[in-house]
Amino acid sequence: MPIERFPALVAAPGVVHGFLGRVSGLDVKVDRALALERLDGFHRAAREELGLGGRAFVFGEQVHGREVAVVDEHTSAPVPGVDGVITASRAVCLGVYVADCCAVYLVDPVRRVIGLLHSGRKGSELGITAVAIERMRTEFQCDPADIIVQLSPCIRPPNYEVDFAAFVVAQCRAAGVTQVHDCGTCTGADTDAYYSYRMEKGKTGRMLALLALRS
């Protein structure tokens, strides 16, 4: 399966990333748990392709909230009750599953700290990105001006009534982040390449965002 990469993160020193879209021909018109089971082999293969197969794979429970956890290679996944994960460990691969929601990548190349967030309409309205930036500042002394933020494909108007990606960008600006990059892609407009919960009426697969520090 093709692994999408974003120019801003390709240019960022010291990180490995990827965004895994739709697996062509795979039947995922099932509930979330079964869809993820069917996708698991493809997702594992992608982590191997990125050189991350030996890392601890850590992701949140994803409850459409604003909680963000600091994690390391000893953290068990899924992390209960959180939609964001932050780490300074080079032994970890962070993950976020999305199907219209936005995966928000955060990279501080100065302090060598990364974060990955699940931010849909509710999480964006609750300000999860602002929470994550503040956690990076307080836990790791990150300067928001050093942080690079990348937004993944997500659903957008006119295929969705709210432009929650704009909320994420606004939170970044308000927190002092100047390096904000939005790919601008709408998942609802291209279901050949992406899974869309809204357009496929809840029976679909999940994309997977991956982010790790280089060894």
TrEMBL record:
The keyword Hydrolase applies. It catalyses: inosine + phosphate = alpha-D-ribose 1-phosphate + hypoxanthine; adenosine + phosphate = alpha-D-ribose 1-phosphate + adenine; adenosine + H2O + H(+) = inosine + NH4(+); S-methyl-5'-thioadenosine + phosphate = 5-(methylsulfanyl)-alpha-D-ribose 1-phosphate + adenine. Keywords: Hydrolase, Metal-binding, Transferase, Zinc. GO terms for molecular function: copper ion binding; hydrolase activity; S-methyl-5-thioadenosine phosphorylase activity. Coiled coil: none annotated. Pfam families: Cu-oxidase_4. InterPro entries: Cu_polyphenol_OxRdtase, Cu_polyphenol_OxRdtase_sf, Cytotoxic_necrot_fac-like_cat. Belongs to the purine nucleoside phosphorylase YfiH/LACC1 family. This is Purine nucleoside phosphorylase. It comes from Chthoniobacter flavus Ellin428.
